[in-house]
Amino acid sequence: MEPMVVEEFFGGPGPEDLLNAAAAIAQALRQFAATEAQAAAGLTACLPRAGEPGPISDIRRGKAVAQAAAEAASRAALLLEAADLLAPGGTAAEIAAALGNATKRAGLPPGVLIPLLRAAALSLPTDDASARIAASVRVQELANLLA
């Protein structure tokens, strides 16, 4: 009996796995964006309207809530853009450059996306093991390029 050559079977994620991973990461980022948008809407609803008393009457607290709402809305927009940039796939360098430009337009450092991308890779809505491995590999490549 001849020994099995491992290299023939384990060559890493293939092109289709990377595309599946990109789609799954994009979907997870869209779900994160929805959560951020809901948070922004909830915070905005707490702010008093012109001439109306609201649940937050202290001006300092109102400013803090308004700033938190704006930050959440900004993150939601950035996550949606990141999802659109990741979904079609491509090389890690191309995607990282596009993500870096998106964060600059949002006025944020590129590193702000790293924990969100890692969380997206960990929460993939799929049972495709190859896509999960490809997602982890792709997110690590992007994290290295964005850092």
Keywords for this structure?
single chain; mainly alpha
How would you describe the overall organization of this protein?
- This protein is mainly alpha-helical.
- Helix content is 69%, strand content 0%.
- It has helices at residues 15-46, 59-86, 92-105, 113-122, 129-146.
- Helix 1 (15-46) packs antiparallel against helix 2.
- The longest helix has 32 residues, at 15-46.
- It is elongated, with a radius of gyration of 20 Å.
- The chain starts with 14 loop residues before the first helix and ends with a helix.
Which helices and strands occur, and which strands form pairs?
Elements: H1 15-46, H2 59-86, H3 92-105, H4 113-122, H5 129-146
Instruction: Give the terminus-to-terminus CA distance.
Output: 49 Å
Q: Output the helix-strand order.
A: HHHHH
How much of the sequence lies in strands comes to under 5%
Question: Which class best fits the helix and strand makeup?
Answer: mainly alpha
- Low-confidence segments: none
Helix segment count?
Answer: 5
Instruction: Characterize the overall form.
Output: elongated
Q: What is the CA-atom radius of gyration, in angstroms?
A: 20 Å
Tally of strands: 0
Main β-sheet, in a few words?
none
Helical content band: 55-70%
Summarize the structure in short:
This protein has 147 residues and is mainly α. The chain is built from five helices and no strands.
